[in-house]
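Objective 1b of the project was to move from sequence-level analysis to a structural picture of ligand recognition. The entry below was assembled by the postdoctoral researcher (A.K.) and checked by the PI before modelling. It contains the amino acid sequence of the target and the SMILES of the bound compound, flavin mononucleotide.
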Amino acid sequence: MLARGSQRRMDPTRGLPENTLRTSLRAALRGVSLPHRVVVHAIDGVAPGLYRSPDLSTPARAGAMRDELYRVSWEGGLARDAAFVVIAATDVGALDDREYREAHLAAGLVEGRLHLLAYGLGASASGMTFVDSEVPPFLGEQLDGLLFTCVGVPGYTSATGGPPGAPTEVRKVTER
Ligand SMILES: Cc1cc2nc3c(=O)[nH]c(=O)nc-3n(C[C@H](O)[C@H](O)[C@H](O)COP(=O)(O)O)c2cc1C
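Corresponding predicted holo structure:
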C-alpha cells in the first residue's frame, strides 16, 4: 500500500513479463463473472492484440493497438504507454438496476486489485476513462465499457507513502 503512488508516466519502450499479466488477471478476476477484455501492448511471450480474458492463447484481434487505444481512451497517454490494459465491459442495456450496480462494484474491485497487484509485482497502474461510443466497435462486441485499468512499467518511482496523519510530500508530475 505504501509503495503505491499516482503514476502519471509509463515507459512505452519497456514491457512486462508474462507472469505479471497472468498473475494479475488470475488474482484480480477471482470470483468475478463480469466480462473483462485485455489489450496487450508489450508482454514478453504474448503477442500484441485484444484478448478475451481469461483466454490468452488466441487474440480476438491481433496487432499493435497503442494508437487505437489512445484514441478510444480520449487521448489518455497511459492507455497507449502501458504494457497491458484491462477493460471491464458488459451490455448495460441488458441489466436491471441491481445488476447495473453490481457490475460497477465488480469492475471497481477488479481495478483496485489490479492496482495493488501491479505495485506488488514491480509495475504501476492507473485508471483511465474512455469514449463510450468507441468501446463496442473497438471490442467488436456489443459490450459497453465500465472501467479501463492501465498496467505498465513505471516512468519514475513514486515516493513511499507516509502513515495516517503524516503523508509524504510529493511533487506534481504531468502526463507525457
Ligand atoms: C475510473 C477512473 C478514470 C480515470 N481516468 C483517467 C483519465 O482519463 N486520464 C488520466 O490521466 N487518469 C485517469 N485516471 C487516473 C486518476 O487521475 C488517478 O487515479 C487519480 O489521480 C488518483 O491517483 P492514483 O490512483 O493514481 O493514486 C482515472 C482513474 C479512475 C479510477
